[in-house]
Structures are given as C-alpha cells and as structure tokens.
C-alpha cells in the first residue's frame, strides 16, 4: 500500500457514484447508525443533506476517489472540550491500514480546527475487533465497557469506550 495515495477532504456532489459503492454494503453499515444507501439518487441526497453540511466530515480518498468517511462531532456548550469520532471504509479496502492512516491525519487536523477540543471519544462494539485495533494502533486508550449502551439496528448493544486526549501522542 502506497499511503501517499490516501487523502482526506470534504465531500463533493460528484462523489455520489463512489459513495454508493461502499455505502450500499451491509458489511460496512452493520456497526454504523445509518442504513445502507441503495440508489444513486439516495447517495447524492445523502452527500448534499448529511455529508456536506456536517460540522466536520471528510471523505477518505484513494487517488482522490471516495472510499470511505471519517467524521468528528463536537459536543456543545460547556461540553465542547469533547468530540465523538466515527469512520468506515469500503470492504474491498479492509485490512490495508487505510483507516489507521486516515485517523492519524484527522487527529492532527481536528485538534487545530477545534481550538478548545481536549478529548476525542470513540464507542466500539465488542465484536468489532478491527475498529478496536485501529484505535489502539493510533494511540487511543480503552477506558471501559459500557453495558447495553448504544442503540443500533433495532438492538441495544454493549460498547467499549476509547479516548484520545490533545496531550496524547499519535503512535
Ligand atoms: C473497522 C474498520 C474501519 C477498519 O478499517 P481498516 O482500514 O480495515 O483498518 P486497518 O487496516 O487500518 O486496521 C485493522 C486492524 O484490525 C485487525 N482486524 C480486522 N478484523 C479483525 C478481527 N476480526 N479480529 C482481530 N483483528 C482484526 C487487522 O488485522 C488490523 O490490525 P493489524 O494492522 O494489527 O493487522 C473497517 O473494517 C470498517 O469500515 N468496518 C465497518 C464500519 C465500522 O465498523 N466502523 C467503525 C465503527 S466503531
């Protein structure tokens, strides 16, 4: 893998075809809060109504083609020192270190973009070993196990909680 071909950038309307390839895959959306996107119209609408207006969402790109996303949502008011991070990648690209590289890039940017941000959090289901491994490889610390914490795809699921502080080192 030539990691110099990986970039993160804002979504564009013209990403709809590429987004449809990975967002229509149930293996990708199983651990995500949103459902698969199955048509080009839905993909365009999703980019216009969700991806572009999102406060901080980037497309992870390979040779500038969208293969996934990474997003950060900051809490509001007195909790704005904290933000939640989420990501996914098309299953054709799993296991090549791409999300690890993209997450390292994103961390450097978000702590600059949000000057009052101190803590990034991620919630991961126990069965999702790939995602746990990504967080560990980047330098996130596992802090605990939250029983019956998240509601996803009609089920209440257990979650591990991970964090990365502005003072932590990217590995
Ligand atoms: C989880 C996900 C983001 C990982 O992306 P990726 O680009 O494949 O991740 P990387 O290649 O950077 O690293 C994956 C690591 O997990 C490991 N891994 C993957 N599946 C695993 C499993 N079932 N058990 C143990 N380790 C596993 C890989 O071996 C690799 O570790 P290594 O480098 O030490 O060998 C990707 O699989 C995905 O998009 N899944 C669906 C959406 C999702 O789960 N999003 C996160 C929600 S919290």
From TrEMBL:
Transmembrane residue ranges? none
Q: Which Pfam families match?
A: Acetyltransf_3
- The residues covered by the N-acetyltransferase domain are 6-167
Q: Name one GO molecular function term.
A: acyltransferase activity, transferring groups other than amino-acyl groups
Q: What is the name of this protein?
A: N-acetyltransferase domain-containing protein
Q: Which organism is it from?
A: Anisodus tanguticus
């Amino acid at each position: 893998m030539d990691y110099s071909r990986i970039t993160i950038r804002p979504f564009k309307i013209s990403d709809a075809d590429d987004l449809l390839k990975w967002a229509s895959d149930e293996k990708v959306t199983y651990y995500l809060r949103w459902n698969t996107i199955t048509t080009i119209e839905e993909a365009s609408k999703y980019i216009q109504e969700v991806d572009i207006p999102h406060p901080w969402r980037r497309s992870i790109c390979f040779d500038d083609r969208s293969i996934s996303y990474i997003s950060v949502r900051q809490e509001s008011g007195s909790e704005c020192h904290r933000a939640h991070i989420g990501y996914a990648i098309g299953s054709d690209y799993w296991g090549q270190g791409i999300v690890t590289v993209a997450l390292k890039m994103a961390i450097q940017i978000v702590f600059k973009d949000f000057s009052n941000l101190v803590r990034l959090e991620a919630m991961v289901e126990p069965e999702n070993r790939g995602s746990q491994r990504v967080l560990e490889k980047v330098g996130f610390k596992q802090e605990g196990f939250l029983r019956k914490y998240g509601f996803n795809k009609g089920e209440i699921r257990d979650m591990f909680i991970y964090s990365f502080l502005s003072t932590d080192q990217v590995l």
